[in-house]
Write a structure and sequence with these properties.
This protein is of the alpha+beta class. Helix content is 28%, strand content 26%. The chain has three domains: 184 residues, no CATH class; 78 residues, 2-Layer Sandwich (Phosphorylase Kinase, domain 1), CATH 3.30.200; 97 residues, Transferase(Phosphotransferase), domain 1. InterPro entries: Kinase-like_dom_sf (IPR011009), Meiotic_Drive_Suppr_Kinase (IPR052396), Prot_kinase_dom (IPR000719).
Length: 379
């Protein structure tokens, strides 16, 4: 085996790369980076990752040094090095703080950061069905592995320096990467996550089964993106608040919501069919009228939807009976207490989007004759 700068050079099974999470289409959440591969070098150059090996979180070295007790800050806000013998390994730091009670002190806030960091990357590993994860400061890297027998148990390696050489007692950094590539991932069904339904504001939407209920699962990073997190929490408030009585009628039913794997806020709702955007010209007039009726029901409860797009209107067609059901989804940008003027403006926006009014806002003949009895004539 060849050596170069005391590193052993190993041929990877497939072309592999570190890249942004967006280069793997079905990634869930927003990890800082991913480690994956492609079938050939041409695909690699086009940044189209086909196989995901691990998720990667990147933190600055100064933050890791402080979190691990390798560098302290004195009263003058200056760094103070800690003796080598006092250094704490990442897994020891996590185990010593995970059950710590919040006493409102700066010390608790300082140490709890490491708990959030581990919970975040563990959540990415679980939700993306990964056995391996990497936490890196570029200077050094920690390799994380979920136990085969009990995937809720997480192993964390000692730190591996980027220039670490192979010896009889330690692998090089490149050898650690190769080890990850050679391992197979767990079966996704083990965690009751299904296929990808689509992509929304918060990222990938999956089919999932939780507590015996199957539906569409939306996730928002608990620590990564505060804006998306607030949108998810807003959607939950809208579902369980003003729109609770029209769940299953004009909007999907909210099945479950909460925190998943200490890393995501999730919403599990009943599946709602196919969006108007995907149906295109196959959207029937009666389905458009049902969409108008649904928005009117939402407005009647004082809610402005806030994101009128074909992607947010779903239809379920029964080809045997010829009947359809239409649902409104995605209330991340919704507001309560909107003025009558704003509600009317949004309704006109929908009618124009569905070509139910002309550019001046006048309704077509069919809509004018049915707008007071929309539910009757949709057979």
């Amino acid at each position: 085996m060849n050596t170069f700068n005391k590193q052993r050079l190993i041929c990877l099974l497939k072309p592999a790369t570190w890249c942004k999470h967006g280069y793997f289409v079905d990634i869930v959440g927003h990890p800082d980076a991913i480690f994956g591969s492609t079938d050939n070098n041409d695909e690699l150059e086009s940044w189209a990752v086909d196989y995901l090996f691990s998720v990667v979180e990147i933190k600055p070295e100064w933050l890791m040094r402080i979190a691990l007790g390798e560098e302290l800050i004195n009263v003058h806000n200056q760094p103070v090095d800690v003796d080598e013998g006092n250094q704490i390994h990442l897994h020891e730091e996590y185990n010593s703080t995970v059950d710590m009670i919040d006493d409102g002190t700066t010390e608790y806030t300082h140490y709890h950061k490491i708990v959030k960091l581990i919970q975040q990357i563990f959540g990415y590993m679980v939700i993306n069905d990964m056995r391996y994860g990497l936490l890196t400061s570029y200077t050094r890297t920690w390799f994380l592995h979920r136990q085969n027998e009990d995937p809720d148990i997480l192993y964390i390696s000692p730190s591996v320096d980027i220039d670490q050489s192979h010896t009889s007692t330690q692998p090089s950094f490149l050898e650690c990467e190769v080890k990850i590539e050679k391992m197979r991932n767990y079966n996704r069904s083990r965690f009751l996550f299904g296929s990808v339904l689509g992509h929304g504001r918060s990222g990938v939407v999956l089919t999932a089964k939780l507590c015996g209920k199957t539906g569409a699962l939306k996730l928002a990073d608990l620590y990564k993106n505060k804006e998306l997190l607030e949108e998810m929490l807003n959607e939950i408030r809208i579902y369980v608040g003003p729109l609770i009585d029209i769940q299953g009628m004009h909007i999907p039913k909210l099945l479950r919501f909460g925190v998943l794997h200490e890393a995501f806020v999730f919403i599990l709702m009943t599946s709602a069919g196919i969006s108007f955007a995907k149906l295109g010209n196959d959207v029937m007039k009666k389905e458009k009228l049902l969409a108008v009726e649904g928005l009117q029901a939402i407005h009647k409860r004082g809610v402005l939807h806030g994101d009128i797009r074909l992607e947010n209107i779903m239809a379920e067609k029964n080809h045997l009976t010829g009947q359809s059901r239409v649902w409104w989804i995605d209330f991340a940008l919704s507001k309560t207490g909107a003025s009558a003027k704003d509600l009317d403006r949004e309704l006109v926006e929908l009618k124009r989007l569905l070509c139910l009014v002309d550019q001046k806002g006048a309704p077509d003949a069919l809509l004018a004759s049915q707008q007071n009895n929309l539910a009757v004539d949709v057979k």
